[in-house]
Amino acid sequence: MFKALLLENAPSFSASVQSVDTARLPAGDVTVAVAYSTLNYKDGLAITNRSPVVRQWPMVAGIDGAGTVLESTHPDWKPGDAFVHNGWGVGETHWGCLAERARLKGDWLVRLPAAFTPRQAMAIGTAGYTAMLCVMALEDSGVEPGAGEVLVTGATGGVGSVAVALLSRLGYTVVASTGKASEEAYLRQLGAAAIIDRAALAQPGKPFQKERWAGVVDAVGSHTLANALAQTRYGGTVAACGLAQGMDLPTSVMPFILRGVSLIGIDSVMAPRALRQRAWDRLARDLDLSKLEHMIDEVPLEGAVAKAQALMDGQVRGRVVVRIA
């Protein structure tokens, strides 16, 4: 038996920590002991049943996990190996990592960099790994630290917090957008050079506005992303990875055809293994672990349901780490 945060929909929806028989673990070629997991926005949606994230029932929640391999028939993994897992439909179509045990596919796993403990890896989680993918997209598109200001939207969230810390460490001038005025000290501690109220971006705006941003990391979507595009400088790049405000994009072609702005979509769920390993290796090199510690809000597995509700109510900043063991 092992403890797991189980989501059920019969006779009605429920989310609770239960003891589960190991015989119920799904198919996979690697069985792992999960030391830490985390709560991402998608986890919050699933655990609170606010969106149809879960595709198969019952479901063990948790798209991220870090810990140790117990058993493996996969050639790349052996008992005792330290792993990190992000995405691949886990917590949606395959039992997830908010549990003491998980059975996964070896091709989904990435080696835990020696620089990180499992707790630190989950403080990063899919949100931080996504932030690194966004930063790499800006770099690969030629947005250099001296090019001008880089905007990070949803800056107190998981993606935003790590993006601010990474970009500032790499020498970029970071402007953080947030609706939480009380968190200015937190964002400046992470490295933000300036703070703007999210209200300045959240309302419908003109499709073409005064140039300001050399690059943008956007986790919000909708009017915020549209305004960010309209304000991006000639040849700039916007990396879009979220939809906290909405999945619509009410914009025009003008930023693209008159300023040569690039909009790059960032997918962390199905990203190839080589790209994942590159992102985690970059995180090990470029993320200031002292700043990471300021982002952590740790809860035990039994506290995950209540914390997921707080996350969806906008009452969480930074990264929620869930202690499993």
Q: Identify the CATH homologous superfamily of the largest domain.
A: Medium-chain alcohol dehydrogenases, catalytic domain
What form results from the Cα inertia axes?
A: globular
User: What is the CATH architecture annotation of the largest domain?
Assistant: Alpha-Beta Complex
Helix content: 25-40%
| CATH fold call of the largest domain | Quinone Oxidoreductase, Chain A, domain 1
Distance between the termini: 14 Å
Number of strands: 16
Mean pLDDT: 95
CATH class of the largest domain: Alpha Beta
Rg over CA atoms, rounded to whole Å, is 19 Å
Number of helices: 10
What structural class should be given to the helix and strand makeup? alpha/beta
Overall number of domains: 2
Q: In sequence order, what are the helices and strands, one letter per element?
A: EEEHEEEEEHEHEHEHEHEHEHHEHE
Task: Explain what the structure shows.
There is one protein chain. The chain is of the alpha/beta class and 325 residues long. It folds into two domains: 2-112 and 291-323, Medium-chain alcohol dehydrogenases, catalytic domain (Quinone Oxidoreductase, Chain A, domain 1), CATH 3.90.180.10; 126-265, NAD(P)-binding Rossmann-like Domain (Rossmann fold, 3-Layer(aba) Sandwich), CATH 3.40.50. Helices cover 30% and strands 28% of the residues. The protein contains ten helices and 16 strands. The strands form three sheets. Strands 3, 5, 6, 7, 8, 15 and 16 form a seven-stranded mixed β-sheet that branches. The longest helix has 23 residues, at 118-140. The radius of gyration is 19 Å and the shape is globular. The relative contact order is 0.17. The model has no long low-confidence stretch (mean pLDDT 95).
